[in-house]
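pasting input
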Amino acid sequence: ETGVTQTPRHLVMGMTNKKSLKCEQHLGHNAMYWYKQSAKKPLELMFVYSLEERVENNSVPSRFSPECPNSSHLFLHLHTLQPEDSALYLCASSRTGPNTEAFFGQGTRLTVV
Amino acid sequence: RKEVEQDPGPFNVPEGATVAFNCTYSNSASQSFFWYRQDCRKEPKLLMSVYSSGNEDGRFTAQLNRASQYISLLIRDSKLSDSATYLCVVNPGGGYQKVTFGIGTKLQVIP
């Protein structure tokens, strides 16, 4: 139990569907992150929220839309995805600052059909 | 040059062997460094932070060489349970964590 919980663990969706990934942390952290992990590629940082404000958006397509209603919750809204978006989506949280480590959720394995 | 470079492996080693991984980074101003372990189809988990003076945790030793811009992870007396992918993580610093992950080095410990 890492204190970071993601739901659902697995998701299969069609290209015309709309779905949302949820992340919740109970560690008292004030920064949360979405990462994408594709096969044979390093983790790619997608979005960073610090103190509930989006501070990083790494040129992610608009079909991915993050939402951070409070410091404990993070969502990733998905719509009109492509098959190449199939990947493991990982949420992480940390304290802010340069020398703190991130704690990851178990991820959502997304398949777009 | 990639921000963080690792040899993806796989490194196949017999039980009991000592194995070492290196990871190079391009940003000389990077402030903090970590090794994470990721088991197949699982999330990454922090293995250890890497301090300037080097640090050891049981069979694992991590070292930082700022002059040559690399960090290393040494595993002694390898166990079957050490089989995993080891991710090098570099944080350039700043007001929030903006880390870069290496692609990971896959280790397979063989009986």
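fyi Chain A touches chain B at residues 2, 31, 33, 40-43, 45, 48, 50, 55-56, 88, 90, 94, 96-107, 109 (CB under 8 Å).
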